[in-house]
């Protein structure tokens, strides 16, 4: 027994890393696109940066429901796959894609019909609001293709195939940035479309790659095959919604809270607002590394529970946390050391550079707590425990972020205090999630097959 434990630990670490590194690269590519959008906008001025930041926030709000559905897809597909019930895994993936189309279409309607009204909620000046509305409109146009891409990628990762989604995302990222630059800045004979061009270029690139992605899947090129059935399996849909509803609500709370937080931040001026957007685009790189370990934890925990090995499921979560801590603490050191050149690379406005550096110092201090949230919340979701991450998120955002930010703003404190509330938010969530994971109560949650 004493000799098997180190081997088991080494095996778990290897499995976590095998699943995590392609997902990390995928997320880094996704983050690079957001980073590039901000960098392109910086060529157009601080107002354009604020507009793209606003557009990204609305995009993530739309994605919130779909991300919750992807959590349910991961749990059901991974557990069925781990139990060697391939047909059930394919049914879960198919149902998730059907539901995602409906949700994406409904969520896109406001962005298509009233984009300016949505942008005006951020209390920005009129030119920035109009630019943001154009960005928001084009996001809505391509929402369905984005949803299908997300669900198919999620299903493949849940089976352990993390390489295929990576290749398609690489192609999408390259085209996204290329088209964004061309349409935003204008190259003969194409006129410069500004902020709207960034969204249109990115959306059209994603749409093109998604069509190819779906064609490969439909022709049976992947190990997870399409059912090719138009009928909706209502039992499977009900299971997906039951598992995914807390995660959907969680993501909605996150994005709505961020909208409120941005509303508070907007009162400190366009420079502080733009600095936060730039800071988020920079810090996203170490954050998505932790998110990759969360995805790996969710997949392994789901597969091990499906195979009837709860002790290995527990080990997978802890190992994912250790690796996430190592990666994100290393990332925080890089942020602190290179805060000034990173900020200056993004924009040349001295005040925006200063605010960005302060933000990066604050978020660097929060990286260990963020690693706990991502790895352990991912492990819990992989087990089908989506309610407790919802609870911890609500507590962190309300008690740790929004209420303190509102109090600090009411008291007339500087924007530095608004940045600092992130430390309260992530610390509270980390404490709650560690306690939940150590309790092992999540091991008793049952996830059916929806057959």
Automatic annotation (TrEMBL):
<feature type="transmembrane region" description="Helical">
    <location>
        <begin position="166"/>
        <end position="187"/>
    </location>
</feature>
<feature type="transmembrane region" description="Helical">
    <location>
        <begin position="415"/>
        <end position="434"/>
    </location>
</feature>
<dbReference type="GO" id="GO:0006811">
    <property type="term" value="P:monoatomic ion transport"/>
</dbReference>
<dbReference type="InterPro" id="IPR050222">
    <property type="entry name" value="MATE_MdtK"/>
</dbReference>
<dbReference type="InterPro" id="IPR048279">
    <property type="entry name" value="MdtK-like"/>
</dbReference>
<keyword id="KW-1003">Cell membrane</keyword>
<keyword id="KW-1133">Transmembrane helix</keyword>
<feature type="transmembrane region" description="Helical">
    <location>
        <begin position="274"/>
        <end position="301"/>
    </location>
</feature>
<feature type="transmembrane region" description="Helical">
    <location>
        <begin position="135"/>
        <end position="154"/>
    </location>
</feature>
<dbReference type="Pfam" id="PF01554">
    <property type="entry name" value="MatE"/>
</dbReference>
<keyword id="KW-0813">Transport</keyword>
<feature type="transmembrane region" description="Helical">
    <location>
        <begin position="20"/>
        <end position="38"/>
    </location>
</feature>
<feature type="transmembrane region" description="Helical">
    <location>
        <begin position="240"/>
        <end position="268"/>
    </location>
</feature>
<dbReference type="GO" id="GO:0042910">
    <property type="term" value="F:xenobiotic transmembrane transporter activity"/>
</dbReference>
<keyword id="KW-0812">Transmembrane</keyword>
<feature type="transmembrane region" description="Helical">
    <location>
        <begin position="388"/>
        <end position="409"/>
    </location>
</feature>
<dbReference type="GO" id="GO:0015297">
    <property type="term" value="F:antiporter activity"/>
</dbReference>
<feature type="transmembrane region" description="Helical">
    <location>
        <begin position="58"/>
        <end position="78"/>
    </location>
</feature>
<feature type="transmembrane region" description="Helical">
    <location>
        <begin position="99"/>
        <end position="123"/>
    </location>
</feature>
<feature type="transmembrane region" description="Helical">
    <location>
        <begin position="321"/>
        <end position="338"/>
    </location>
</feature>
<dbReference type="InterPro" id="IPR002528">
    <property type="entry name" value="MATE_fam"/>
</dbReference>
<protein>
    <recommendedName>
        <fullName>Multidrug-efflux transporter</fullName>
    </recommendedName>
</protein>
<keyword id="KW-0050">Antiport</keyword>
<keyword id="KW-0406">Ion transport</keyword>
<dbReference type="GO" id="GO:0005886">
    <property type="term" value="C:plasma membrane"/>
</dbReference>
<keyword id="KW-0472">Membrane</keyword>
<feature type="transmembrane region" description="Helical">
    <location>
        <begin position="193"/>
        <end position="219"/>
    </location>
</feature>
<feature type="transmembrane region" description="Helical">
    <location>
        <begin position="358"/>
        <end position="376"/>
    </location>
</feature>
């Amino acid at each position: 027994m004493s000799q098997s434990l180190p081997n088991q630990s080494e095996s778990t670490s290897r499995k976590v890393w095998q699943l995590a590194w392609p997902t990390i690269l995928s997320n880094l590519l996704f983050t690079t696109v957001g980073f590039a959008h901000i960098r392109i906008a910086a060529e157009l001025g601080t107002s354009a940066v604020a507009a793209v930041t606003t557009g990204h926030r609305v995009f993530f709000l739309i994605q919130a429901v779909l991300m919750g559905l992807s959590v349910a897809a991961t749990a059901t597909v991974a557990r069925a796959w781990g139990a060697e019930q391939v047909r059930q895994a394919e049914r879960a993936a198919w149902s998730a894609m059907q539901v995602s189309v409906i949700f994406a279409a409904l969520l896109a309607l406001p962005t298509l019909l009233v984009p300016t009204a949505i942008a005006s909620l951020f209390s920005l000046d009129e030119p920035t609001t109009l630019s943001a509305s154009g960005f928001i409109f084009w996001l809505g146009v391509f929402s369905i293709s984005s949803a299908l891409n997300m669900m198919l990628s999620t299903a493949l990762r849940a089976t352990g195939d993390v390489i295929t989604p990576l290749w398609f995302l690489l192609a999408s990222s390259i085209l996204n940035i290329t088209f964004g630059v061309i349409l935003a800045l204008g190259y003969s004979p194409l006129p410069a479309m500004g902020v709207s061009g960034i969204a249109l270029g990115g959306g059209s690139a994603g749409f093109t790659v998604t069509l190819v992605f779906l064609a490969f899947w439909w022709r049976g090129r992947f190990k997870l095959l399409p059912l090719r059935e138009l009928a909706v399996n209502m039992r499977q849909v009900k299971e997906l919604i039951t598992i995914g509803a807390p995660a959907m609500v969680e993501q909605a709370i996150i994005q709505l809270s961020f909208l409120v937080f941005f509303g508070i931040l907007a009162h400190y001026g366009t420079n502080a607002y733009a600095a936060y957007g730039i800071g988020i685009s920079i810090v996203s790189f170490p954050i998505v590394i932790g998110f990759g370990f969360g995805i790996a934890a969710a997949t392994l925990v789901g597969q091990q529970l499906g195979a009837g090995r709860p002790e290995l499921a527990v080990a997978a979560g802890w190992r994912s946390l250790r690796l996430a801590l190592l990666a994100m603490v290393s990332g925080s050191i890089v942020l602190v050391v290179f805060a000034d050149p990173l900020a200056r690379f993004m924009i040349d406005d001295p005040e925006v550079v200063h605010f960005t550096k302060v933000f990066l110092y604050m978020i660097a201090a929060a990286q260990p707590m963020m690693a706990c949230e991502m790895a352990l919340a991912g492990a819990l979701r992989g087990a089908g425990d989506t309610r407790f991450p919802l609870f911890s998120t609500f507590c962190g955002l309300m008690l740790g972020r929004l209420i303190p930010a509102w109090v600090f703003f009411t008291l007339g404190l500087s924007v530095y205090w608004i940045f600092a509330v992130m430390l309260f938010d992530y610390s509270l969530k980390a404490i709650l999630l560690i306690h939940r994971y150590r309790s092992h109560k999540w091991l008793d949650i049952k996830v059916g097959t929806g057959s």
